[in-house]
Amino acid sequence: MWCCSPLVGQVGMGADLVRLEGNAMCSPGFSCDSALQVTYILKGSGRLQVVGVEGKRILETIVKEGNLLIEPRFFVVSKIADPDGLSWFSIITTPNPAFTHLAGSIGAWKAISPEVLQAAFKVPAETEKIFRSKRSNDAIFFPPPNGRNKSLLVLVLDLFWSINMLTTFS
């Protein structure tokens, strides 16, 4: 996902190019250093969500081809592609950015017990087990959900927004 072309690297910046399949999601994540990320939507459309201090949703909007946005540092940002997919290119104001995602081996899921998840979202143990079984140790991109897993995606998104500050300040 992240790359640094020779030209971009020479001026002390980084860059990334991401292509999401239709209905896929990029894990919520944030910049843990002083890097600022300027993102240009190349193709497609989707939903962008930004969560700030104390887990408050700052922005939830539709992004589409031609949009330019600045992703605030230290705020959790996630993108979900519409059925036709979503592609973006970002310039990052440091050649070695430090990003943290709320999923994968470095995510907050490891710190939360199954019982806490069940109680927080009022779901049975079976739903929590399905959720954990879908989690991969290294994935920050999630494939499109099939019919049965759509409600699971809603659970995942709600949980990401509810616990994002736990990861941010720990």
From TrEMBL:
CDD domains: cupin_11S_legumin_C (cd02243)
InterPro entries recorded: 11S_seedstore_pln, Cupin_1, RmlC-like_jellyroll, RmlC_Cupin_sf, Seed_Storage-Functional
Pfam families the record matches: Cupin_1 (PF00190)
Keyword NAD attached: no
Domain Cupin type-1: 5-129
Key words of the record: Disulfide bond, Seed storage protein, Signal, Storage protein
Chain ranges passing through the membrane: none
UniProt GO MF annotations: nutrient reservoir activity
GO biological process: seed maturation
SMART domains: Cupin_1 (SM00835)
Entry similarity comment: Belongs to the 11S seed storage protein (globulins) family.
PANTHER family the UniProt entry points to: OS01G0976200 PROTEIN (PTHR31189:SF62), OS03G0336100 PROTEIN-RELATED (PTHR31189)
Name this polypeptide is given: Glutelin type-A 1-like
Organism listed in the record: Hibiscus syriacus
